[in-house]
Amino acid sequence: MFPPEIEQIILNYRTCEFTTLTKNQTPSTHPVTAWYQPGADHITITTSIGFPHKIDNIRRNPRVALLFSNPTGSGLPSGGAVMIQGDATPDDHLTVVEGLEDFWQRMFAWQPRSKAYHKTKLSRYLFDWYYIRVQISVTPRRVLYWPTADMTYAPQEMAFNAEFQ
Amino acid sequence: MLNFNDMIKALSLDETVVLTLVEASGYPLSLRCRFTVDAAAQCLQLTPPTGVEICAGDASLLCHAHDETLDNLRTLTIRGQLTHEGDRWIFQPVKFQPGLGMNGFWRDVVQNVIIAPRRSAKQYLQKHGLSRPEVPWDVLRKLTGE
């Protein structure tokens, strides 16, 4: 769905800046880890119900933005950036692990410290909320691309899926 | 409560911030920008990319960082107003929202990572008439590869 240079960034950047719009239409931006299956027509964000405001915002207004602009840990030398505007749809159901096995496997590899959340009976009690999640599908509407870390110049507007053009 | 000087100190760790505003289309637009601090006017001058239509109005700045293993997280959100003065974009902060790595142990770990999200999760389940699902810890442990 995305050109290879865009896909590499989405697949490898550890975080992106995810923006929803609040009740009074002001932007609310938080770092999250996005999940993308190569070739899919959407990007998945998961959010714990311990931080439900993103879900509430999207149910009022589905317009969102994702900016992949922090290459730390990605191993990609270019340091480029991708900005995606899209329409978000939250799942009506809660997800714990089923359907997110690949996501969690990758998170444990990327963030080894998060394994501590389920080491002891106490930590499992305190942090169970972290694993109770709502999946949010983001269907892209516009994609901007900066090939290098210098974002002072104009981005390239990228085609990403012929059926949306 | 953070004040402007605290914000400057926090921003001194970053060369860029993520500016987010709302486009005329109604979609949010996020851009990573270089910035300079105008301490006298208690505002920031931003250098957004060329070739992107930028709208004045409600906006936010996000400063966040992590290391190679997604550890040592640091997050600061600043809400404010974006204005255009001549050829300069000015961000006037209104509210600082310190996140992880900005509050010391008590607020970072106990309040922000245990108490507040546990309370929010409970409220979410109650609001939607849902029972608390069991977390399959044995499955998660297998996924860690240990």
Give a brief rundown of this model.
The complex is a heterodimer of chains A (165) and B (146). Chain A has helices spanning 4-12, 53-60, 101-110, 121-131, and strands spanning 16-21, 27-32, 34-35, 43-48, 63-68, 81-95, 133-146, 156-158. Chain A is built from 4 helices and 8 strands; from the N terminus they run H-E-E-E-E-H-E-E-H-H-E-E.
List descriptors.
heterodimer, A: about 160 residues, alpha+beta, 8-stranded antiparallel sheet, 4 helices, about 35% strand, B: about 150 residues, 6 strands
Note down, in words, how this protein is organized.
The complex is a heterodimer of chains A (165) and B (146). Chain A contains four helices and eight strands. Chain A has 165 residues and is of the alpha+beta class. In chain A, strands 1, 2, 3, 4, 5, 6, 7 and 8 form an eight-stranded antiparallel beta sheet that branches. Chain A is globular, with a radius of gyration of 16 Å. The two termini of chain A are 12 Å apart. The mean pLDDT of chain A is 93. With 146 residues, chain B is of the alpha+beta class. Chain B contains three helices and six strands. The mean pLDDT of chain B is 90. Chain B has helices at 4-11, 104-127, 137-143, and strands at 16-22, 28-38, 43-47, 57-65, 74-85, 88-98. The chains are: A alpha+beta (165), B alpha+beta (146). Chains A and B meet through strand 1, strand 2, strand 5, strand 6 and helix 3 of A and strand 1, strand 2, strand 4, strand 5 and helix 2 of B.
Topology:
The complex is a heterodimer of chains A (165) and B (146).
Chain A: H1 4-12, E1 16-21, E2 27-32, E3 34-35, E4 43-48, H2 53-60, E5 63-68, E6 81-95, H3 101-110, H4 121-131, E7 133-146, E8 156-158
Chain B: H1 4-11, E1 16-22, E2 28-38, E3 43-47, E4 57-65, E5 74-85, E6 88-98, H2 104-127, H3 137-143
Antiparallel strand pairs in B: 1-2, 1-4, 2-3, 3-6, 4-5, 5-6
